[in-house]
Design brief:
72% helix, single chain, mainly alpha
């Protein structure tokens, strides 16, 4: 399995954390507090929201993209260093024994 697929759950968790952080930052920027953050989240993703939920959602997506890219880049570097330090877990292939020959 390739390294990218093996670490996909980690990448997904990083993107989710970046999005949640960006959503709360956007709520604070747009509204000044977190009072309606969960309601705005529901309104934005169901398409039933007005201006504030839409602005909050757009700002959060804009903040998520660069922060996710930076976090995944740092995570990949960290995982690559970790993989280099660990010994190879797969056994080396061996040649057939060639029974019957001298």
């Amino acid at each position: 399995m390739s390294s990218s697929l093996r670490h996909f759950p980690s990448y997904l968790a990083v993107v989710a954390a970046c999005y949640a952080t960006a959503w709360f930052i956007a709520c604070i920027v747009v509204n000044g507090d977190l009072g309606f953050s969960t309601e705005y989240f529901r309104l934005f993703w169901t398409g039933a929201g007005g201006e504030r939920p839409v602005f909050t959602g757009i700002i959060s997506i804009v903040l998520t993209l660069p922060s996710s890219l930076a976090a995944i880049w740092l995570l990949r570097r960290s995982l690559k260093k970790k993989d280099e330090k660990e010994p190879n877990q797969t056994p080396e292939p061996t040649a057939p024994s060639g029974r019957g020959s001298s």
